Amino acid sequence: MDFSFTETQNDAAELAATIFKNECTPARLKAADKGRFDHALWGKLADAGLLGLCLPESAGGSGLGLLELSSVLIEAGRLVAPAPLASHLPAALAIAEFGDEATKAAWLEGAISGEKILTAAVAEEREHLPARPSATATETDGAWTLSGVKSVVPAGSVAALFLVPATTPDGTAVFLVEPGAGVTVVAQRISDGAEVARLELESAPATRLGGSEVATWLEQRLTLAASAFELGVVRGALDLTAAYAKTREQFGRPIGTFQAVSQRLADGYIDILGTDLMLWQAAWRLEEGLNADKEIAGVKLWAADTGHRVAHTTVHVHGGVGIDMDGEAHRYFTVGKLGEFLLGGSTDQARKIGALLASEPV
Hints:
This protein is of the alpha+beta class. Helix content is 53%, strand content 18%. A hairpin with a 2-residue loop joins strand 2 and strand 3. The longest helix is centred in the middle third of the chain and has 36 residues, at 212-247.
């Protein structure tokens, strides 16, 4: 059995890595920390065709799959790229999969060109992935309006469209909401610029995209994408920390030669390998149309645990440099900690896996 990546998958990752290496310089990242979005980088990604990577060729995309998507997101995370790929791409995929022709025409071209940034507003104050959202949808004379609050919305301050799960009389459905009347976006800036937003809806006009099957479909891909980006973040953090441990000297020798430091770096390396294996298993099963509920929860659990441990290792090994805002380590810590809890941390995922296992026939 051959587990190696295809040439296309490798090419997508290499293209993304080249762009991020050229564009995500320390100076650019520091400037982007004010809002965690780099317009010039977004334009480069669009020009390279990476914003349409997984969208169908009929819509102007490349028609690739979730494995290629994951490869690109890992490279984005490796340099903590200030570009909301992990929310934009799954949202665009949902429109391509479930939208009618008018909806596709209205949004996909702009999503591929980078003109329109899409995101998903899923989490609420008390639940990361609510089975029954507190946000509600009301239909009057064939027109829908939404009311409620969504928290921790990635790229909320720059998004042109929100995909919002809400509760209807017939169950959960996903709606398209544009900024405008009835929509208030409140920036929630975390420390050094890892920005998300709070979305407040009050009888906001909305378009129904689909029912509970769309909500489940979207949440699976959002979770996979968040895990892939987090895997890249911890890889970049460990690379940065290992390089620092080789050059920073204490008591006349590099700190990386001390057992306590080397063991923490080794533990991080093992955690990353485990997350990597879980990611590709989940991505492959989802791409093949197989049941991947446990695998998606599993990779998010691993990504959350690894994100926690490697983020703290990064700061601890760097010492005071780790919290210096002129350095690089602080950025990996903040973005890594956000990724740890986004769409549910390790406890949430463990509970989900437990419930899935308990529901299986003996």
